[in-house]
Amino acid sequence: MRYSALKVFTQGLTGNKGWKPVWREPDPKPQYNVIIIGGGGHGLATAYYLAKEFGIQSIAVLEKGWIGSGNIGRNTTIVRSNYLLPGNQPFYEMSMKLWENLEQDFNYNAMVSQRSILNLFHSDSQRDAFVRRANAMMLSGADAELASAEDLRRELPFLDFDNARFPIKGGLFQRRGGTVRHDAVAWGYARGADLRGVDIIQNCEVTGFDIKDGVCTGVQTTKGAIKAGKVAVCVAGSSSRVMAKAGIRLPIESHVLQAFVTEGLKPVLPGVITFGVGHFYVSQSDKGGLVFGGNIDGYNTYAQRGNLPVVEDVAEGGMAIMPMIGRARLLRSWGGLMDMSMDGSPFIDKTHISGLYFNGGWCYGGFKATPASGMCYAHLLARDVPHPHATAFRLDRFKRGYLIDEKGQGAQPNLH
Ligand SMILES: Cc1cc2nc3c(=O)[nH]c(=O)nc-3n(C[C@H](O)[C@H](O)[C@H](O)COP(=O)(O)OP(=O)(O)OC[C@H]3O[C@@H](n4cnc5c(N)ncnc54)[C@H](O)[C@@H]3O)c2cc1C
Fold this sequence. Notes:
about 25% strand
């Protein structure tokens, strides 16, 4: 069923009785051409583009929980392409272009809202670094705009410009950045993939791999064994646990990242704003809640809940740039599992086991990458060569010394 204004109108007149489930609930078949492990945003996008752009048939997505139960339904919904390094920036700009056309492409309302993102800077040296970043962004075709403190005083008068420790000296805007309704992205990709014949199998955990003589021929699951021509792992925060079942140790640690939502307020924030000294980012949802987050909890864990010191740290970041946030009441908070790589950048690569592929290491920034990650992973799976915008995301880059250390923090995931 194609969604359209006419459909909404006619369904409204006939009691909304004609809407169909958005995807089927099939039982797994004994064999597929491609099995994708993980029904998060990246896994579903990969299945969608594999079927749509590369014409691959007989695809299954195996999800241990339900669609949207992972980070795709837990993130703070920010999309942007304001990266610096050559391995990253063109990839994220490709993602931004896919976001811009996504709703028409998969015929689903994902509430793509290019309401802008502003990175505040608080010192002259930080301004210089942001100018460099803006130049790198423009070289890849992205938009970037430097704003002075005076510009920001006019546009965002509620910011604390004269904070004694962290005065705001200006900011870097990406006006095309913004937010997208996270779980609608999962539903839209799931629907688009299902329409093209992809089997989306929920409550189906992969418990092992069938590997013989260096070739992966299928997986063991809680719903039985399934054979496959290619097996594509795409499990985000569970990457190290799942790949360990294939005997592969990854340069990835799992940490928890928390998110927070306040009570609904009248519209006050026009876009996304980030603090330049600590780690704090905030936007306002269409329902009025301030949605914000900050640092990961700095210890390894697979628990999807965080601890109070980070709550305090995030609240301090908010108070430093926007004291009025102290009057808002916090309604909810939750945590998600982050697959933190050692240089803060992702992987989309084959493994040394024939037929086994890996996508992960998205850290706390993988939501914005969802469309490009799906497209590039599908390209790798269909053609067995990396997409031109994902050639740097290799598993052996640490061995070769080609790190993509966007933040310059070295091999300390807890600092990325
Ligand atoms: C609090 C928070 C805020 C964030 N904010 C942002 C943001 O503003 N912008 C941004 O760009 N990114 C953000 N991120 C990061 C982003 O959400 C993730 O990088 C991205 O969603 C990860 O990819 P995914 O959607 O495929 O992951 P997931 O949705 O986690 O998908 C992985 C799936 O694999 C499944 N799985 C695991 N093990 C198995 C198994 N053995 N068998 C079968 N299935 C399995 C899991 O159940 C899960 O559904 C945030 C994350 C969190 C937690």
